[in-house]
Amino acid sequence: xxxxxxxxxxxxxxxxxxxxxxxxxxxxxxxxxxxxxxxxxxxxxxxxxxxxxxxxxxxxxxxxxxxxxxxxxxxxxxxxxxxxxxxxxxxxxxxxxxxxxxxxxxxxxxxxxxxxxxxxxxxxxxxxxxxxxxxxxxxxxxxxxxxxxxxxxxxxxxxxxxxxxxxxxxxxxxxxxxxxxxxxxxxxxxxxxxxxxxxxxxxxxxxxxxxxxxxxxxxxxxxxxxxxxxxxxxxxxxxxxxxxxxxxxxxxxxxxxxxxxxxxxxxxxxxxxxxxxxxxxxxxxxxxxxxxxxxxxxxxxxxxxxxxxxxxxxxxxxxxxxxxxxxxxxxxxx
Length: 334
Known about the structure:
Blueprint: H1 7-13, E1 18-23, E2 25-38, E3 45-58, H2 59-68, E4 72-80, H3 83-94, E5 101-105, E6 112-118, E7 121-128, H4 136-151, E8 157-161, H5 170-183, E9 187-190, E10 204-205, H6 209-216, H7 225-239, E11 243-247, E12 253-257, E13 260-264, H8 277-290, H9 295-309, H10 320-333
Parallel strand pairs: 1-4, 1-8, 2-6, 4-5, 8-9, 9-10, 10-11
Antiparallel strand pairs: 2-3, 6-7, 11-12, 12-13
């Protein structure tokens, strides 16, 4: 199975793929500094020499990962008509991402997560956000935009990247899945808690361990692979999900399709930051699935990709050239 995979050919296939990425976007802001002393006012570190950096986050990081792998992402989301919204659009322009799928809503704020980091030590995070669902008016406009993009043709896959900030409403989920069935485009989902059981009749569902446990109300340990697999099968059949893939951090990835399971162990790495790993996994899995790869191959490549981005501080997209090299080495030894 692994030996027969031509990775150069596979990675070249990604360049012809166009992916619609629908979900909650945000600005990931980093305050990089040094800690030299503790505050005399409270037992907290003082961070000095601060450098501020803004990056695209949330579903926008999925778009960056799709782009990094050589494919073409079209990002669809709703942001605030505010100063942060303008910064977000500027960041998209810097990354050569189209804003054709972006709606600005004067009644929403653009989500910003600010992380204070010294070295690779994450000291504090401040979130500025709102998580109410879109108004009916904005939702209708957003769905019309998505429908037009799908009807125009050329879309190979849809990724829902749900961060529970209100863009991925129950109506958006049902309408987009219905539209995808009409045009024959597969849907892949990276879920959060609020809409966990609303995704039905989809190609791939990729929760992490925490999301699966909360979504299914499970009391199973992360290393109890067999028990997790049993619960996954029940939910998969109930929701008519073709492939279900659970990321288990240090336990690797569990993937299920057609009643068969594969468990891919994690590869030993120097972990700096796990932020954004899920974005990378769903992005790479989508591209591999469009290219008709077997479940075990999809899980293994996605596992390597998710692990790779954890080696760097902050949210970063995958390095396709490095991933290609890792795949060739990993599969040769498997």
